What does this fold into?
Amino acid sequence: MRHVIEQAATWQRSGTRFAMATVVRTWGSAPHEPGASMLVAEDGRVVGSVSGGCVEAAACAVAEEVLAGAAPTVERWGVGDEDAFAVGLTCGGTIEVLIREVGPEVPLSRLAADLAAGVPAALVTRVDSGDALAVGGGAVTGSLGDPGTDRAAALAAEGMLGRAMSGLVTCGNDGSAEVACGPGRRLLVQSFAPRPLLLVFGAAEFARPLAAIGATLGHRVTVCDARPAFAAAERFPGADEVVTDRPDRWFRTHEERVDAATAVCVLTHDNRFDVPVLGLALRSRAGYVGAMGSRRTHEDRLARLRAAGATEAELARLRSPVGLDLGGRGPEETAVSIMAEIIAVRRGGSGLPLTLRSGPVHVM
It folds into this structure.
């Protein structure tokens, strides 16, 4: 969603009129979660998506009506509707989409600046009017029309940012909010947490496509290697930083940046570097820790980690050999298998073919 907000801020600064369509609620096998947005400019340009292609044409038609003067509206599309096949939503889900014009008073530039600086931020929109405010870095910019609603919106946004969640909040769900905000008023909160970290230790050839794919999937990528000849920035154009340092020393210095969304991939294939940084990573808050190597290398690495003091619980966190079994070969296909495993671990996926599963494709 970051690229959508950045584009919206650019259009707003240039004076381009546009509408924003945003998913507010979903049921069943909906392709996108609440908060997913699509922009429709007055000149016909479209950026983003609300349904992976299913109902974009219908959403664009409503956006054009809004730009022609119609009021903000919440539209619902689902496979059970009579016109489901007409709009293309045949995947079995149902979505509600808020469509409103975004005027110059919406603080998109402030939101984009917070996101660029890595500050967690949220955009809160009144569903009935399209008014919006931004919350980030302890500051509130913009207004939803009255101080009570602004206060309720800021509290709701801070709570949802802490859980990295987006969706609808209805004022009046508790006694204090009902007085301040007005019972039944619906607010859409779009949360933007910092990009998850992908830490790649070992600037070998396999690290090049891994850094590129990780960046494409929205990660902040750091590549670290103690060997200057390998840690060359020009080899990793997708990485946010390429550093020459011992992996364990770099990790100790920057461990405060590591959280449950962080993925650590150790690719050096050299125990002098791999074992020390793996010991640190397995004791850290990192949600994913993987290491490259054969099964024989893995068994030797486990023995070395035990000798270095790693517990069995820590060793159970290690994903090694790293990646899902895709049958791939070479750096690029290996990078795909590693990123696939990172996504599966983060999202709770099984890694199995969808044809072997029953039930909804997208489990909400």
Notes: Residues 71 and 100 are 7 Å apart (CA to CA). Residues 330-347 form the longest helix (18 residues). Confidence is low (pLDDT under 50) at residues 81-85, 173-180.
